[in-house]
Amino acid sequence: MNLSSTLCMPRSSRALFVLFGWLFAAACAAAEIEVVASFSILGDLVREVGGERVAVHALVGPDQDAHVYEPRPSDARRTGSARLVVANGLGFDDWLPRLARSAGYKGAVVVASDGIRPLSMNGSDDHSGHDSSAGRIDPHAWQDVGNVRTYIDNIAAALAAADPDGADIYRGNAARYRAALDALDAGIREAIARLPKERRKVVSSHDAFGYFARAYGVRFLAPVGVAGHTEAGARSVARLIAQLQREKAPAVFLENVSDPRLIERIRSESGAVAGGTLYSDALSSASGPAPTYLAMMRHNLATLMAALEKQ
Q1: Which CATH class for the 194-308 domain?
Q2: Long-range contacts, stretch 75-83, CB < 8 angstroms, 24+ apart
């Protein structure tokens, strides 16, 4: 319809026409790519790359443990209607491909960790002081900032394939975020380098920091393996306490997704200092200290350094 015919309309019809046009334009402007991510950390990375073109829903939210996640009917409906589904991989969220299939999702499940050299939980890579995780793959690859560069590249490529019109935007967002990751990685290395080597050892609730240990040279010991919901045996806990007393580990740390009682027992019996709370498998709420991946890693570094620098 041209301008002259619009002007010839009755005033009420013309107003209605303009209103519908405005609503249509607003709906087009608000159109977003619906993306489902398995857990909060991955959801934040997708948001950083997608920007305003994506609407991201993390199935496992802040301060929630993805190891014990059980899908709800609402999660299945959301997953089935998504344009893109993003998983961590490495055995962390094997439930997501199954959920996607059962929900009728027709696309491919993007694995953000594709291309990362996985860490084996055996031999010299086992930082837990026990063998309950022997032979398993450590899925917590995001604890090495260098690995997250690969996450970002994979996410940007997947978003560009799902939404070619936004490819340049995704590439630009990814480039800016990689620069922030580079600065974060350098900052962590600089801080850890200030610590004497004998103080670069800590205890955490479960074995979630192997990639951080490999990348940055801090030794982590844990009473529980990579899946934090597993039970630590009395014998392995006693061995760990004896090891801490022998090696004089400076501090023990809680995790936001773990039961604090076990780590408190280890702290009290070993004499180690309580170092605070680390964020391992989930972000904090928006009002907490770790609402984004970058904030989480900065918080963890500050918490570690505050305890380990004490004499």
Answers
A1: alpha beta
A2: 75/99, 76/102, 76/103, 77/103, 78/34, 78/36, 79/36, 79/103, 79/105, 80/104, 80/105, 81/34, 82/34, 82/35, 82/36, 82/57, 82/107, 83/33, 83/34, 83/35, 83/107, 83/162, 83/163
